[in-house]
Design a protein that fits this description.
The chain has 245 residues and is α+β, with helices and mostly antiparallel strands. It has 8 helices and 7 strands. The chain has a 3-stranded antiparallel sheet, with helices on one face. It is globular, with a radius of gyration of 19 Å.
């Protein structure tokens, strides 16, 4: 259930349908922790004990050197929420690059999946969990505003609406029907970035539909701290690109 924390199906929270469920906290999820974390729930204490035993056997304590590096990366991540610093970073570090540079699968377990979560990461997650309902409500509001204000576009398709008010979406994807990367560059030149889009999908080449979607989908700026002014700027940019296409 990595991406569906806070979402309901028929009034029931995802993660409560099976014997156990695993949720993710990273920079693209509803709750985000620099740079990765998560949690597990289980139906019975006995199953949770078995899961914890497997965790203890596989996960190592984080070495102090790696924790310091991770903390520095986390500080940089927070600083980049400043619009001017992000623009500088994007210009210097991300020029001509896109998220998910390759479709190759990485079978090796990286450092993000080897080490235990630190206390400072847990301290960042806890307040977000406490205001989960407010985060979900804001995202639902943004989702509805995007759909309302981008309706009728000719050159991109919108995601479906949240008819029953049950979703806690972590992205707002549009399916571009023209050159996706040309739109990426044109929007970025106007101050709107789609950096959390996947230019390539990490899956086998035989998954042709997944790759076709990867070539067409752009994720709009979409997080609970997005202001109404920023949303309006994104909408105006997309409408201008739609008219010019």
């Amino acid at each position: 259930c990595a991406a569906s924390l806070g979402t309901r199906v028929g009034g029931r929270l995802t993660g409560t349908f099976g014997d156990a469920a695993f949720f993710s906290f990273d920079s693209t999820k509803l709750i985000n922790v620099p740079l990765k974390a998560g949690f597990v729930i289980a139906r019975t204490p006995e199953l949770l004990t078995r899961i914890c035993a497997g965790y203890e056997a596989e996960i190592e304590p984080m070495p102090p050197s790696h924790e310091r590096r991770l903390f520095a990366l986390g500080v940089a991540y927070v600083l980049l929420t400043n619009p001017w610093l992000y623009r500088l970073y994007h210009t210097c570090a991300l020029r001509r690059r896109y998220t998910a540079e390759t479709s190759a699968l990485e079978p090796a377990r990286t450092a993000f999946y080897r080490y235990d979560v630190t206390e400072w990461q847990a301290a960042i997650a806890a307040p977000q969990l406490a205001r989960l309902d407010a985060i979900v409500a804001r995202r639902r509001s943004l989702h509805a505003k995007y759909r309302e204000q981008l309706a009728g576009a000719r050159h991109f398709a919108l995601p479906p609406g949240d008819r029953d008010g049950e979703w806690a979406c972590i992205r707002f994807p549009i399916r571009v029907q023209v050159d996706k990367l040309a739109w990426y560059r044109a929007a970025n030149a106007r101050g709107v970035d789609f950096a959390f889009s996947f230019t390539h999908i990490a899956c086998p080449p035989t998954f042709t539909r997944a790759h076709a979607l990867g070539r067409a989908v752009l994720d709009l700026p979409y997080y609970d701290k997005l202001t109404d002014a920023e949303l309006q700027s994104t909408v105006q940019t997309l409408r201008a690109l739609d008219q010019a296409a």
